[in-house]
Amino acid sequence: ERGGMIGNIDSMGLAMQALEATEKFYAPREWDCKQAFTIVSQYEYHSTMAIAQVLPALVGKPYIQAGMMLLPCAPWHHAGHPPSPSSLPVTTIKVHYSIINELQGKHFNIPIEVDVPAGSTLLKVLQAAEEKEPENFSFKTEQTSWGPMVVSIYGLAANPKDRTYWQFLSGGVALQEGVGTYKPHNGEHIKAVFSTY
């Protein structure tokens, strides 16, 4: 129903592994993995956890065999180090960023526009906004196995008891990646909305 997408792009690998391992138990319909393979093979993964989970499903091998199979393919494998970021051209993009709370306490909708180097992650956008207007755009993160997770913005913290969290959207659609991996494009408007689940 979602063109092969299962959960979000970062959870696809784990879902594919589970479905591959248990497909003989899914009767009467057969799982058509071609759509899911098409999605993950066209996506450029940045999260180490997501890569580790999608790799075995893509090559049909266990973790150890899959890793050994692809290690020589890394572009810097023979050079011994990744390419230097200073050798890449740097251009600046403008990102519109808003923080919105219409859920608890004093409601707010605060916009800002920041300039960040092209290719920056959403986390860099949040940091630029905080640097520009710390009184409005201060935020806190917690490190997870998937990367940094925003737990508080403008002093308003997510709370599992209230089932609240900060959801990031672009064009009204929830982002499929976290702040540490999602890369906004020039002119994009990202909204952080205090939400419930």
TrEMBL record:
InterPro entries: Cbl-bd_prot, Cobalamin_Transport, Transcobalamin-like_C
A molecular-function term among this protein's GO annotations: cobalamin binding
Keyword annotations from UniProtKB, A to Z: Cobalt, Cobalt transport, Ion transport, Secreted, Signal, Transport
Binding site for cyanocob(III)alamin: N8, Q53, L175, Y197
GO biological process, one term: cobalamin transport
Domain of life the protein comes from: Eukaryota
Domain Transcobalamin-like C-terminal: 119-191
Key word Ion transport present: yes
Coiled coil: none
Subcellular location field: Secreted
GO cellular component annotations of the record: extracellular space
Pfam family, one: Cobalamin_bind
Family: Belongs to the eukaryotic cobalamin transport proteins family.
Protein name listed in UniProt: IF factor
Gene: Gif
